[in-house]
Amino acid sequence: MTPRPRDVAVVAFAQSDHRRATPGLSETELLLPVLREVLDRAGLAPGEADFTCSGSSDYLAGRPFSFTLTLDGVGAWPPIAESHVEMDGAWALYEAWVKILTGEADTALVYAHGKSSAGDVRDVLTRQLDPCYLAPLWPDSVSLAALQAQALIDAGETDEDDLAAIAARNRAAATHNPHAQLRGAVPHGDYVVRPLRTGDCPPVSDGAAAVVLAAGERARRMCRRPAWIRGIDHRIEPHDPGRRDLTDSPSTRLAAERAGAFDAPVDTAELHAPFTAQEVILRKALRLTGDVRVNPSGGALAAHPLMAAGLVRIGEAAARIHRGESHRALAHATSGPCLQQNLVAVLEAELEGEPE
Amino acid sequence: MSKEPVAVAGIGQTHHAAARRDVSLAGLVREAARRALDDAALTWTDIEAVVIGKAPDFFEGVMMPELHLADALGATGKPVLRVHTAGSVGGSTALVAANLVAARVHRTVLALAFEKQSESNAMWGLSLPVPFQPPLLAGAGGFFAPHVRAYIRRTGAPAGTGTLVAHKDRRNALKNPYAHLHEHGLTLEAVRNSPMLWDPIRYSETCPSSDGACAMVLTDRAGAARAPRPPAWVHGGAMRSEPTLFAGKDFVSPRAGRDCAADVYRQAGITDPRRQIDVAELYVPFSWYEPMWLENLGLAAEGEGWKLVESGATELDGDLPVNPSGGVLSTNPIGASGMLRFAEAALQVRGAAGEHQVPGARRALGHAYGGGAQFFAMWLVAAAPPTG
């Protein structure tokens, strides 16, 4: 890999309490306290970051140009250097990381928000599919995930009891996460779409998250223990689930390789696995062994604000490093049906050749 | 370590039309991408990453369409980023792609922007309610017409300025085989007599609704050295945003536009834009925005943009040609419109603009804006690589 011109770190993270519905709260109102908290942590005034990048979806908001409204919460006056991706905020973080690497910015504010409660999210996500071949069939997100889970069971790589254990472990971990929506023992419930039961599926969540990135010395001044981005990469696979081996995630593996995830073992992994079976696939693709703490936050099974859930994974992994609970952590984000597109970031407490 | 210089080695666009019923979304984007690859003499495997831009997903009724378009763009196993910054998105997409090369994350990147507006009704898609105001808007023209009137009142511009711009851009489009509108024999008289839509904006002073796509291959120095045709070099690029509405906002000459231009000029070493820029492709969806942006970008003194238009300086044979391609007034697939401006600027400095080539163009400005005149993206490209 070409040597990077700059070292970039996650120096602050904040998120909302994720909830089943937030009636009466606009996306801007949902976001504002989160922005305030993350900027306070980083010691930045509104509008002070050199670059701002956000991730959200018009289809969730139910109106075109929905992201223009949240600029009111950012403090975009005087005018700011700003961009937006129609993707999970993890990819907004990627765009901001690239911007800092160019040297055009030393600091960046990244945020994401999603109000999944505004529509029926299973129906809404069918509109994400190929409009000629798939969308007319209205296969919803749970049904597609169920196909994937069944393929995994048929391949002998998991069974329903294993999946139930994954659900229980994530939600037990969420007991210690005050922002999570589903915490502690949650009934595994009836089948939603075989073989997936209620407990195998993520909750429908409204929520927001924000991260501050900073380069080099600036990062050290803003954070006692910055979470340095040692590598970050993302890859996509063919769209049609019928053209993929659903029991594997080659794009995750490739992104992890490019991000340097296999260069040294990680102690923590935050995986964006909305469905239990996807955690099995991701663990395999990322070669995570039993001694890695997977989803200490509870993961997407404990809270799943669409468009923010991936950024939350990076934020949670970084926060563990900030608190001294991790030395080297992996964060993952996904997008599209059945893990079509995947991003992997590797965060570390120390830079190469530098004492912690 | 300084940034890697970024070159535009390939440019492609579709033929634009009110409805491209002959192609799907995938067929549309592939048409532009293939032309850009052919121009750069590259194949899909030479592309390391794809950056896709478009305006709201509701225009086609597909949420995050890049997920299924990845297949048509040869993106399997590659990074795909999807940008959406309202009307400026085509420009922002080019800048995000350029940064991937400038940061040395990738060596060769495909930037692509599209809109297939025939899939829905864009005019009503753009008729967003303005907070605390009665819902009276019909189309973007309804939003921008009051700001045009404010410009006329502020500068004392004569009523005919807008029609001059529209007549010029539509005539320029006759020289651009890819343009949507080819109105042969359109007279100034006909523009003046076209129906009034949003006072003072007439039908012929309004952009069409188009289906189309634009693509560019951006590459590093090594890639530029291998390119079969002379590249355009990026000398400066910037984005600026401000809120839609606030007390004191100057809709006629938004500060975000001025700041964005100042940043680009600083990067490119431009101290006298009027003299140093040879040609400009400006995002002019309604005729009056040409004099307004000329002032906002420092290409005309404040209050004098309309005088530059009247003098004929912005004609194809003037000393500061604006929109030789025919501009947004002749072709408007919204998500791609900004990238078309960026691409046309690059075509000009490559000497590859065909019949609408400005002779000897060395430096060109590409400009895009969006939302409530609040999102700006610009780049300055030149025939010579940046020094230092």
Please characterize this protein's 3D structure:
The complex is a heterodimer of chains A (about 350) and B (about 400). By secondary structure, chain A is of the alpha/beta class. Chain A folds into 2 domains: about 10-120 and about 205-230, 3-Layer(aba) Sandwich (Peroxisomal Thiolase, Chain A, domain 1); about 120-205 and about 230-350, 3-Layer(aba) Sandwich (Peroxisomal Thiolase, Chain A, domain 1). Chain A is built from 11 helices and 12 strands. Chain A has helices spanning about 25-40, 60, 65-75, 90-100, 120-125, 140-155, 160-175, 215-220, 250-260, 275-285, 310-320, and strands at about 10-15, 50-55, 80-85, 105-115, 190-195, 195, 205-215, 225-235, 270, 295, 330-335, 340-350. In chain A, the strands form 2 sheets. In chain A, strands 3-2-4-7-1-8-12-11-9-10 form a 10-stranded mixed β-sheet, sandwiched between helices. In chain A, strands 5-6 form a two-stranded antiparallel sheet. With about 400 residues, chain B is an alpha/beta fold. Chain B has a domain at about 5-120 and about 210-225: Peroxisomal Thiolase, Chain A, domain 1 (3-Layer(aba) Sandwich), CATH 3.40.47.10. Chain B has helices at about 25-40, 65-70, 90-100, 120-125, 140-155, 160-175, 190, 220-225, 255-270, 275, 290-295, 305-310, 325-330, 335-350, and strands spanning about 5-15, 50-55, 80-85, 110-115, 195-200, 200, 210-220, 230-240, 280, 365-370, 375-380. Chain B has a 9-stranded mixed β-sheet with strand order 3-2-4-7-1-8-11-10-9. In chain B, helix 1 crosses helix 2 (about 65-70), helix 3 (about 90-100) crosses helix 14 and helix 11 crosses helix 12. The longest helix of chain B has 17 residues, at about 140-155. Chain B is globular, with a radius of gyration of 19 Å. The termini of chain B are close together. The mean pLDDT of chain B is about 95. Classes of the chains: A alpha/beta (about 350), B alpha/beta (about 400).
